[in-house]
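Summary of Year 1 activities. Much of the first year was spent building the evaluation harness for sequence design. The harness presents a backbone, in tokenized form, and records the residue chosen at every position. We chose the following record to illustrate the format because it has been used consistently in internal testing since the harness was completed.
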């Protein structure tokens, strides 16, 4: 029967390689996120939204990753019995490494019209802002 010998140097080298690979994969994490959900659940006049597009590009899935800067966000409000497709465009100055919770504000649940609003913004853990380009 063959016996296996443990080599501490090989184990340490493998651990170091996997640690460095993990650090290398985290580089380039410079984006911000848009989420169409309520952050504060107790506000009875806010509703979740569907983010349809950012800067004219259609979006699928959530959260939506965007670069920092001025963004034009097309939102679909909550459905009502009269209009299921009511949309509003929102201008948003996105800060680097920030998660934004976007909501629709309605005066009452039966009203069709809504006003888009940022319900909450929070820093994204583990995100490092992109280096400033010189030139």
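For this record, the design step produced the sequence shown next.
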């Amino acid at each position: 029967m063959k016996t296996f010998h443990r080599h501490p140097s090989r184990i340490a080298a493998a651990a170091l390689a996997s640690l460095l690979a993990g650090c290398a994969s985290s580089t380039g994490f410079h984006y911000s996120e848009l989420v169409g959900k309520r952050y504060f659940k107790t506000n009875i006049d806010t509703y979740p939204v569907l983010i349809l597009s950012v800067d004219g590009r259609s979006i699928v899935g959530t959260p939506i990753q965007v670069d920092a800067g001025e963004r034009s966000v097309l939102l679909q409000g909550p459905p009502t019995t009269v209009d299921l497709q009511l949309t509003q465009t929102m201008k948003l100055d996105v800060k680097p490494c920030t998660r934004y919770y976007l909501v629709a504000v309605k005066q009452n649940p039966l009203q069709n019209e809504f006003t888009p609003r940022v319900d909450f913004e929070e820093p994204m853990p583990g995100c490092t802002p992109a280096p400033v380009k010189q030139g």
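Helices lie at 8-25. Quantitative recovery figures across the full test set are reported in Table 2.
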